[in-house]
Amino acid sequence: MTALKELTLDVVKVRADFPILERKVHGYPLIYLDNAATSQTPRQVIATFDDYYRRYNANIHRGLHTLADEATAAYEGTRETVRAFLNARERREIVFTRGTTEAINLVANAWGRANLKAGDEVLVSLMEHHSNIVPWQLLAEQLGIVIKVIPVDERGVLDLDAYRDLFTERTRLVAVNHVSNAFGTINPVKELAGIAHAHDALILIDGAQAAPHEPIDVQDIDADFYAFSGHKVYGPTGAGALYGKAALLEAMPPWQGGGEMIKTVSFDTGTSFADIPHRFEAGTPAIAEVIALGKALEWVSGIGLELIGGWEQQLLAHATERLVAVDGLRILGTAPHKAGVISFVVDGAHSQDIGLLIDQLGVAIRTGHHCAQPLLTHFGVDATCRASFAAYNTPEEIDIFVDALERVIGMVR
Ligand code: C6P
Fold it and tell me: Where is the Aminotransferase class V domain (predicted)?
């Protein structure tokens, strides 16, 4: 009995941490199903900002006064929290960034420019978010590297045989997401890493959609780089992290210059750079946001990602069952291993219209290409509706969402 109880997420208790869930939208209780875009923020995280700005707002690493010490300790404390969250070996393997996009751009610009030359190959999958495509396209234009695309099957599952066949002696890097934001597919990143390493290539994993849903272990995956965003894991916007193996980071030049990232600067002898990770954190960082990110990860760990992921799987199963019964509705992305993300289109109803009208009933879903245009184009659509779940969503909310959807479809058809 106790064991069973421990396996059940107390969603009422979880919801009580999210003040925003009390608000109404167009007179209806908010049903927030756009968590893959940004998850909502628990009061403990919101309180971090108030505490920081009231008590110890100061620049970090530079001051010798109490406030600067406290801010530095809290900021660097988050580095340890992120290290533990990803099970990295060392704190210095964690670089704070604005989010996943900046983390990938860091790898492209620091590692990529130092290690790639014309004709070298980078493998990305068809289901990448634009932020794991465009930085490599920019390098392709500037350095002449070649981008090769790992195909997916009709369920939105990566084609592993095709992946193996893409490797040549010029393959240097595989850049793939852990979980697809558009379809929810969970990719076998450990296997992908093993294959990449067998070909002497590195692997960069975009974990933006995985970090909120399942425990991450970068050592077990054997990831070379792993990126995620705070705002998708119950934290604030403006703070995320890049994990990089220490030896790789150490061998990488900086990509942005400024304060914080130097040891000495001289017009005569030039500049020497700080050790990792500070070499990659030029300028004053998002101090309060990073501290709040630490609080968010503590909040998540306090509940447990196994429990959150398990709850979301129940929501996914319930939503899938309800949605497949809707007349003319087609789910895109039917992988056997999916996170709590459902993309769908409806015959005779444009996704944009559905999104706008369902908002009038208090339901927030995302519509559009989800910054994954190559994937959607491949599946013959330019937009889908996407519902994505978080720890605070309930089966009752899903019922209200699907009822609202049926009402909306009736209005637009
Ligand atoms: N996806 C979505 O609605 P940033 O913006 O840097 O925090 O995250 C970018 C990003 C990178 N990779 C994946 C897999 C993502 O899902 C995202 C963000 C949001 O799906 C906004 S487009």
Answer: 31-401
- Cα 83 to averaged position of ligand 1 atoms, centre (Å): 21
Are 278 and 335 in the same domain? Answer: no
Judgement on whether residues 260 and 353 belong to the same structural domain of the protein:
no
Instruction: Mark whether 71 and 173 lie in a shared domain.
Output: yes
Do residues 282 and 296 share a domain? yes
Is 185 near ligand 1, meaning CB less than 6 Å away?
no
> pTM, whole model, 2 decimals?
0.97
Give yes or no for residue 371 CB within 6 A of ligand 1.
yes
208 alpha carbon – ligand 1 mean position (Å):
6
Owning domain of residue 186: 47-302
136 & 226 share domain: yes
Provide the number of structural domains found in the chain.
2
- Series of mean pLDDT values for 10-residue runs along the chain (413 residues): 61 98 98 98 98 98 91 98 98 98 98 98 98 98 98 98 98 98 98 98 98 98 98 98 98 96 96 97 98 98 97 98 98 98 97 98 97 98 98 98 97 91
3-state SS of 293-328 is: HHHHHHHHHHHCHHHHHHHHHHHHHHHHHHHHCCCC
Question: Of the candidates 159, 65, 29, 127, which has an alpha carbon nearest to the alpha carbon of residue 376?
Answer: 127
Is residue 94 within 8 Å of residue 241, measured between CB atoms?
yes
Q: Is 402 domain-assigned?
A: yes
CA of 71 to the centre of ligand 1 (A): 29
99 CB within 6 A, ligand 1: yes
Look at residue 4 in the predicted model and tell me its pLDDT: 44
